[in-house]
Amino acid sequence: MKGSTACSSVIDVQCIVDSYLSFAREKKALSPWQVLSPLGYVAQMGVAFRNWTYDHGIASVWDPPLPVISVGNITMGGTNKTPFVEMLASRFCDMGLSVGIVTRGYGGRNADDLAFPGFGERDAVGDEPLLLSSRLPDVPIAVCKRRRRGVEALKRAGVEIVVADDAFQHRHLGRDVNIVLIDATCPFGNGKLFPAGLLREPAASLSRAHIAVITKADRAPREKVETLLETISRHVPEEAIFLSTLVVEKWSSWRGSFVDLPFEEVEGMSVMAFSAIGDPESFRDSLEKCGVRVVGEARFRDHHRYSLRDMERICRAADEAGTECLSCTEKDIYNLPEGWRARSLLIPRVAVKIDDEGRFWRALLSNLLPKVVVASNGHGEDSIGALLAQRLQKAAPGVAVEAFPLVGRGESYRDCGVRVVSSPVETPSGGIIKYNLRDFLADLRAGLLRQIIKQLGAWKDLRGKCRTPICVGDVYLLLHALFGQGLPPLLLATAKSERIRGHWHIEHCILRKRALVVWTRDPETALELKKVGVNAVYAGNPIVDLLGDNEEGGRHWPADVSAKVLLLPGSRKRAYRDVALLLEASLLLSRRMDCAFLMVLAPTLDLEKLVAASSGFSWDPPFLKSEGLCVAVTDMPVGDAARGADIVIGLGGTANQLCAALGVPVLSIIEKGKLVQKKLLGDAELLVAPEAGSLAEAAYGILTDSDLKARMSEAGRRNMGGGGAVEDVVRYVANEMGLALRCAVWRKIAESLGGDAGHEEHSDHPGALRQHAPAG
Fold it and tell me: Comparing C-alpha atoms, which of 329, 442, 421 is closest to residue 78?
């Protein structure tokens, strides 16, 4: 209490709290509370480790099925979170959105159960939820310690967007936008973590914020605010930092219900103030700014539940001081003793005002734009990823889809206009994990580890800016994405299969613990993964999805030849060496029967290098020619080129499998990678020695043996199965994970803001707003 010696008993109650706050807010250089400093360092190490586990996927993050905006801070209360949450929810309601609020409910006993405060009591849900429920009667408010349960309940209630109160440190709950509030009058206290100071996290944690708002900007000197802006801008982009103030919207008298009072009636009134909030100074300041004379004051810890004895002492002090009435905050109303009534209780009804409000809402809209990253680790996987990206854009109009190829430059993505955000990895072998130890060692010597570290840095830049990543490939890719940006990925598995040797035990553990869903390439693999607890699904072979719906084709082949031979040199750098083998085999085959030859040039290959490697052949576009042989070269998709072919002589991976799925017999060479592929294709593929004569002889045998050719064709179709996996992934992401809802919410907000709010484009991605997200 201040300004009244008659209230010494109240001062006695608060002297310890005031002493601690003076130390924590750095008002006293020397204090006995310094003994807590070692505990602050321990807390800092604990917070750093906890954040590291969430950043790298060791601790689990749940990606909610609807957009969530977190409002929080890095200090122990007093930053005006409750009125800010109210402001956001109220504005979303005005936009025609169904909004809900999820909160912990501090001060209530409802730690594990779910409650909607409109049907609860203060003891169950706490004071702030009741305040919000009173101010927002049409907004459902879920109160529970496990905020995930709250969001799930709000989703079932038909909510479209959630505002999460005080959730910055609740990292298990994924969020679309992180808004952090910083008190201008005491931004970081003494700079130490609780219990040695006011901080929950170090100031560097602001790098997780998409938007930072400096509250109470009118209560701090201009120079202090400018210094604070400079400090925050080290962690948050300047265009995403805003100033706000708390204004008294109206005055009310409380006698069991609110009765509004005119401002002129309040001015000059003498009051006895009492409060139990995080920053009692701000309450006193709001009274004095409106001309109210604060004769005495009593302060209690935040969320304090007043007893009858407390109120008797406050009333006695008010009588002795000769005040006209008592005054408290609106939140304090819900902490008063049941049935207690004051003769006169003055309540300031406050609201948040944001400077440059239009820019704030544009920044919020920008960060609400849904972004999905599709990751892949191989040329065939890139093709599947590109198809998936295109179908996502169709299923959820407006979504920003970006690509993260681990290997190569992502030509398949670039060809369909999908932005590539990874740092390209170019290795001698053209990959990362190899069957050949010699290739792997060559990759290491060429700087593979350095390139992997660069790619992890690229993932870090995406951390907190995208939804659950979709991985097309293997467990290594899943771990890469998980460690890089923290969210458990979806995996469209194209590599491992029970038909080969299945997954290792460690892979079972990883998939069980950290893969949200795994789509397998065959039903046997899905069944085995389910047995060990993995959320596995078989919805078709993703490789077959690359064939599309085109059942025609074959018109590019001449009709007057005995055999149509497709040549596939592969997509890796070794193709420049292997092309000579294919051409020599073709020359030998052409001498035995009338054939048409078509070679498919993968997007990863350079035509000039391929021609240069074709010794004895000249380039006469679009043909490679030599005496006695003419080979057409095309860059059309393998699935289109293979339609109508009688045989494929292929040194690729996914391309060979595509041909087998079409019923085209596959001829390849004996090597470790192809021996693995043989287990997938079975009788659909024939392997011979890596010699031109052996290839030519085997090709001639297949082409002249109609029964063998038919058996290989049937085996290919049977072993590869049908497609559908890509469409099932798109359905899951759009519906189960809420991507379509997010896009619809974004469009509704953009329409409500009007003007050019929805037209500011990302500099590198058409149709995507510029992202004001953190760099780290």
Answer: 329
